[in-house]
Specification:
13 helices, about 425 residues, two-stranded antiparallel ribbon, globular, Peroxisomal Thiolase, Chain A, domain 1, 2 domains, 10-stranded mixed sheet
């Protein structure tokens, strides 16, 4: 079972910096920030006015408008990202129509931290203003988190494992990691996996603003998300979806697929500390990284790049820095690190999809994307965060770290494919 190797053959993105994986990567490398003042609702009474809105997205490119109206925006984004990932992988759009693909051996784990928040908001208003008889019969399937996985499986004919994993901002990371294990243990040969989020809504903003978790640098949106910088004041919420196609190596080789990278390790741990704050010693996240290295048979000095969770909140960045030091020891000061959330903002449950795809591209291109808006060093964040400018570096391995409310930690270890 453990001889089964898991590779990545497709990636798909919808984000505030590009509605495909190519544009997304170009924005990361060049530090083009996609954050700005919110336009989809009035933010004048909110503490934070800034977010990462999707631009020029047309769901009618993927389905009839009538069908799209029966789905929340979070599912629209997931469907679009999955379609790109499947197309890039070279797999048929519908696995049931191919003589070479067993649809019962293809699964879907595409998750969200929050789900169909816009639909829920709209229908609560209907309930309040027009009464319970006017609530949509589609409310429940539109808002529940597993609808994205269900719709993707129906569209692509994936009849294998199908579920969603909700672990807040670690949701996509855990989805990819558990999909990795599904292939390793021979439950599937293909997995479509990642995350989607569409929480840039009034209630989404209201909740996070009341927590005082988001940046209030409202007069300077492009510099509001500043991971690891001493003057960071909170994260900036964004929408989007990041989806990958994972495949068993021999299955991918047999059909002549282009292999983008290999997943070799995955760790998942719990802080058992606080509902919103990370473990101040960084031990939970450190144990996730160490578990990923253990599964991969690697040591700290084997790690070349870390795409950090790096949310731009005072606590996360400080405690994540501690976690990296615990996990890697002296090598922590030598490894290249960056947070791409200065460019993309924080896509919550989709973040792990975005950032795993960033790791894939870093491995392929030999370019470390920068941590933009890093202007004021924080003595408690004293590692190499690749400040402001991308750097060229031939890397063989990369780790993506994601941390979620509730103390959920995930780490994925990727390796450049070498045959």
């Amino acid at each position: 079972m453990n001889d089964r190797r898991v590779v990545i053959t497709g990636t798909g993105i919808v984000s505030c910096v590009g509605n495909n994986a190519t544009d997304f990567w170009d924005s990361l490398v060049n530090g083009r920030c996609g954050l700005d003042t919110i336009t989809k609702f009035d933010v004048s009474e909110f503490r934070s006015h800034i977010g990462g809105e999707i631009k020029n997205f047309d769901i009618s490119q993927y389905m009839p408008v009538k069908e799209a109206k029966r789905l929340d925006h979070v599912t629209h984004l997931a469907i679009a990202a999955a379609a790109e990932a499947v197309a890039q992988s070279g797999l048929p759009s519908d696995f049931r129509e191919s003589n070479n693909i067993d649809p019962t051996r293809a699964g879907v784990v595409v998750s969200s931290g929050i789900g169909g928040l816009q639909t829920l908001t709209e229908q609560v208003r209907v309930l309040d203003e027009r009464g319970p008889k006017r609530v949509s019969p589609l409310l429940i399937p539109m808002m529940i988190i597993d609808t994205a996985s269900g719709c993707i499986s129906m569209r692509h004919g994936a009849q294998g494992p199908n579920m969603s994993i909700v672990t807040a901002c670690s949701s996509a990371c855990h989805s990819i990691g558990e999909s990795f294990w599904m292939i390793k243990r021979d439950d599937a040969d293909i997995m479509i996996t990642g995350g989607s989020e569409a929480s840039v809504t009034e209630i989404g903003f209201g909740g996070f603003c009341s927590m005082k978790a988001m940046s209030c640098r409202n007069d300077d949106p492009k510099h509001a998300s500043r991971p690891f910088d001493a003057e960071r004041d909170g994260f900036v919420m964004s929408d989007g979806a990041g989806v990958l196609v994972l495949e068993e190596l021999e299955h991918a080789k047999k059909r002549g697929a282009t292999i983008l990278a290999e997943i070799v390790g995955y760790g998942a741990t719990g802080d058992a500390f606080h509902i919103t704050s990370p473990d101040p010693n960084g031990m939970g996240a450190a144990r996730a990284v160490m578990a990923a290295m253990r599964h991969a048979g690697m040591n700290p000095e084997d790690i070349d790049y870390i795409n950090a969770h790096g949310t731009s909140t005072p606590l996360n960045d400080k405690f994540e820095t501690k976690a990296i030091k615990v996990a890697l020891g002296e090598h922590a000061w030598k490894v290249a690190i960056s947070s791409t959330k200065g460019v993309t903002g924080h896509a919550l449950g989709a973040a792990g999809g975005f950032e795993t795809i960033a790791c894939v591209n870093a491995l392929k291109s030999g370019i470390i994307p920068p941590t933009i808006n890093y202007e004021n060093p924080d003595p408690e964040c004293d590692l190499n965060y690749t400040p402001n400018t991308a750097c060229e570096k031939s890397i063989r391995t990369a780790i993506n770290i994601n941390l979620g409310f509730g103390g959920h930690n995930g780490a994925l270890l990727l390796k450049r494919f070498e045959g």
